[in-house]
Amino acid sequence: MTKPARSLVAILLGSCLLLALLMGRSEADEPLQSLLTGYAGDSHGVPVRDADVTLRTSPESEPLSKASTQADGRYTLPVPDSIPHGLTVHVERAHFDQVDIELPATTIDALRSGQSVVLPDAMLPRRLTPAFWVATLIFIGMLVIIATGKLHNTLAALVGAALVFATSYLAPPIVKELYIFDFSTGLSYVDWNVIFLIMGMMIVIAVVERTGIFQWMAYQAYRISGGRLWLLLPILMVVTGVASAFLDNVTTMLLMTPITIQIALAMGINPLALLMPEVMASNVVGISTLIGTPTNILIGSYANITFNDFLKNLTPGVLLAMVGLIIYSEVIYRRQLWSKEHTGVSPMLLEKLATRGRITEPGHLKKAALVGAGMLILFVVGEHIHLQPAVTALMGATALLVWIRPDIEEMIEAVDWTTLVFFICLFVVVGAIQEVGLISRIADVIG
Fold first, then answer.
1. What is the pLDDT of residues 368-393, one digit of tens each?
2. What pLDDT, on a 0 to 100 scale, did the predictor assign at position 322?
3. Cβ-contact 170, 176 below 8 angstroms
4. Backbone φ and ψ of 88, nearest 5°
5. Three-state DSSP class for 78?
6. Which residues contact 154 (CB under 8 A, 6 or more apart)?
7. Which of 210, 275, 305, 323 has the smallest number of Cβ neighbours within 10 A?
8. Are the C-beta atoms of 263 and 344 separated by less than 8 Å?
9. Contact 253, 271 (CB under 8 A)
10. pLDDT bracket for residue 29 (50, 70, 90)
């Protein structure tokens, strides 16, 4: 490089360095904007989200700056460069009384000096509006329809959700205080962890049930019992209960019922003597795990109760209840279980039972067993790595679909979308009564 070229490069580098220093100095000399931060909650200490927070010179004046509370109730208000002598923070949200926080002179002086200030917590009292009564009537009406069976459960929940949104959008132009919430807020009350966990487990169940494992287990229960009904009953109850701990109760009974009825008829007894204890065992043991029932899934998601918590706290009681249930069933159905008239099944009927109770897809069953074991491990250790159960269910369902390659349309159709729509609409309606404050008032009465 020639000497003039080196000189030109040095001049350019020096100019760039000088420019960077000047820019850095100007940025450093620029004062930082003052901020007002605070928290908004209700009388129960629950954060109030999506509340409108404004900074004004008086409660009736135009806002100088605006912000909204986050999910944790926190907000941050920027302060304008020109700070007047009197300032008020105005917090407002539907279904709550407005709250005004007047800033003292010391706070205003601190803002003028460039400091940021943390305001006292704003506790917003609940307000009883016409929307409260509308949402309450919709909720009660939905429960009555479900209880009386006038409409299908899912249709009743769908009607309830539709009425909530119709009231929120069509009524306010006439009566402003009939507003409940908008569509996006309504969807925010839907617990998608529950929805995707149920959906993922339904896909896994759809793959597993095609292998014939449950029919095989029921037939093996008969073989182990040697045709002795008093021994067959507890074995079938244990098989049904263990299956219900990991599958939905309804699905478990749908899988166990056909082979159970066939065994009962072949042995000449009333099928209810086996089916009713199986139903009770399904309900008792199904509550021992997070994924055993939709109710557990709801409770676990809302209360942040993990898979391990369910196992640790419920399993001892479930085992005791199961022992009591077996004794109860043996006593109630003793005439049929201990009768000497039922000596067994003919070889022809036994062959028919064996044909029905065989594993149809052993290769798929092995793959499902490996994926199921992996899911169980993730359910147990997931709490330590903040892995949501819904993610585990979705990963397991996807792994099975990719590995086994079943008819994807059949698997998607196997998902009980009716149940999922029911839960989504139920979340919206329950969210409506939570929004207007019914649940808070019930908690006050109970307290």
1. 999 989 998 998 888 788 888 899 99
2. 93
3. no
4. -135, 135
5. strand
6. 418, 419, 421, 422, 425
7. 323
8. no
9. no
10. very low
pLDDT average, residue stretch 35-56: 89
How far does Cα 211 stand from its chain's mean position? 29
Could you give the CA distance from residue 391 to residue 395 in angstroms, rounded to a whole number? 6
Q: Are 131 and 160 in contact (CB under 8 A)?
A: no
Question: Residue 125 and residue 226: Cα distance in Å, rounded?
Answer: 68
Nearest Cα neighbor of 406 from 181, 207, 132 is 207
Going 253 to 256 to 262 to 264, the CA torsion angle's sign is negative
Tokens matching residue 370:
């490996």
In a 13 Å sphere around the CA of 289, the CA atoms on its Cβ side amount to: 18
Residue 113 is encoded by which pair of tokens? 């000096």
Written as six digits, the tokens of 283 are 């309900």
Q: Which amino acid is at 357?
A: G
Bin 50: left if φ > 0, else alpha if -120 < ψ < 50, else beta. left
User: Helices (H), strands (E): how many in the chain?
Assistant: 19, 8
What pLDDT digit, counting tens, does each position of 112-154 carry? 888 888 998 999 998 889 999 999 999 999 999 999 989 999 9
CA dihedral (107, 109, 115, 116) positive or negative: positive
Q: Which amino acid is at 237?
A: M
Return the beta strands (E) in 84-222 as ranges: 88-92, 99-102, 117-118, 122-123
Write the secondary structure of 232-294 as one string of H (helix), E (strand) and C (coil): HHHHHHHHHHHHHCCCCHHHHHHHHHHHHHHHHHHCCCCCHHHHHHHHHHHHHHHCCCCCCCH
**3-state secondary structure (DSSP) of residue 306:** coil
Q: What is the pLDDT of residues 289-324, one digit of tens each?
A: 888 888 888 888 878 888 888 888 988 899 999 999
Return d(Cα 399, Cα 203) in angstroms, integer.
11
Query: In terms of Cα–Cα distance, which of 256, 255, 217, 199 is closest to 395?
Result: 199
Q: Is the pTM of this model over 0.85?
A: no
CA 208 to centroid of chain Cα atoms: 24
For residues 101 and 25, is the Cβ–Cβ distance under 8 A? Answer: no
Structure tokens at 240: 């049904």
Give me the DSSP letters along 151-182: S-HHHHHHHHHHHHHHHHHHSTTT-GGG----
Euclidean distance between CA atoms 328 and 324, whole angstroms? 6
CA angle at 153 for the pair 150 and 158, rounded to the nearest 5°: 105
